[in-house]
Design a protein that fits this description.
10 strands, 10 helices, globular, six-stranded mixed beta sheet, four-stranded antiparallel beta sheet, binds adenosine-5'-triphosphate
């Protein structure tokens, strides 16, 4: 389980996280939702230790990662996979080489074992036939799937998704959602998904947390979030611009 306790982070005078408290249950899919610029990506980067907070704690199975040395953090990070918003593939490497990259960096597997793993992960995301293509030859959805195969390469326990379905058509969105759900069910993965995509959250989330003005204002299962009485949450789910309601 990941437990975030009273997390604060400012950039200069801009206070982005103002005391975030959140529990992310093991083996479940948790969506962190909220408007653009509310600090969702900043929160995600704290969870993987890419940003250090000004104060507060992030407990990963009881271990506070905020005070770890880089070497210790590196060890914890091996338990995490991350699918970045733009998939962050290496442009000059083929899809297969991209998936092999973390295995070459972090394991001592032989080339035969690496090839086997790459094939397994590409099959999982339905990209075997694209193994030798360059990222520039892929569609947006295929790039996301290649990014997912790479994120799964080291068999992580926890996987962080930064807007996995943004910019995808409904069919590709459904396919990415199915992959997230399948990975979670097959490997008891803990999934943390940053998203604005309400239909996806209502389809696959076990838990939804709403980040607004630097704090979690509501959390619960999709049904309870849908019926939330919090004015911002209601407007977010109803798709009404904040300015129109004058919510603070
Ligand atoms: N390294 C940084 N240095 C300075 N400011 C930053 C940094 N990273 C993020 N910010 C600021 O923090 C705020 C929150 O950014 P963040 O990307 O977390 O928002 P978000 O909720 O993920 O938005 P979106 O949904 O549009 O991706 C923004 O105002 C951003 O400019």
């Amino acid at each position: 389980m990941i437990k975030i306790i009273d997390l604060h982070k400012s950039f200069g005078a801009q206070e982005v996280l103002r005391g975030v408290n959140l529990e992310i249950p093991k083996g479940k899919i948790t969506f962190i939702m909220g408007q653009s610029g509310q600090g969702k990506s900043v929160l995600l980067k704290h969870i993987i230790g890419l940003i250090r907070p000004d104060s507060g704690q992030i407990l990963v199975d009881g271990l506070d990662i905020t005070g770890l040395s880089l070497k210790e953090l590196y060890r914890v990070r091996k338990r995490f996979g991350m699918l970045f918003q733009d998939a962050a593939l290496f442009d000059s490497m083929t899809v297969a080489e991209n998936v092999a990259f973390p295995l070459r960096e972090h394991t001592r597997l032989s080339e035969t074992e690496i090839a086997k793993k790459v094939e397994e992960k590409l099959a999982l995301v339905g990209l075997l036939e694209a193994a030798d293509k360059l990222p520039s030859e892929l569609s947006g959805g295929m790039r996301k799937r290649a990014g997912l195969a790479r994120a799964l390469a080291l068999d992580p326990e926890i996987i962080l998704f930064d807007e996995p379905t943004t910019g995808l058509d409904p069919i590709m969105t459904a396919s990415i959602n199915r992959l997230i759900k399948e990975s979670q069910q097959r490997h008891q993965l803990t999934c943390v998904v940053i998203s604005h995509d309400i239909p996806s959250a209502l389809t696959i989330a076990d838990k939804i947390a709403m980040l607004h003005q630097g704090v979690i204002i509501e959390e619960g299962d999709p049904e309870s979030i849908k019926s939330s009485s919090h004015p911002f949450v209601r407007r977010f789910f109803e798709g009404v611009a904040e300015e129109e309601g004058g919510i603070s």
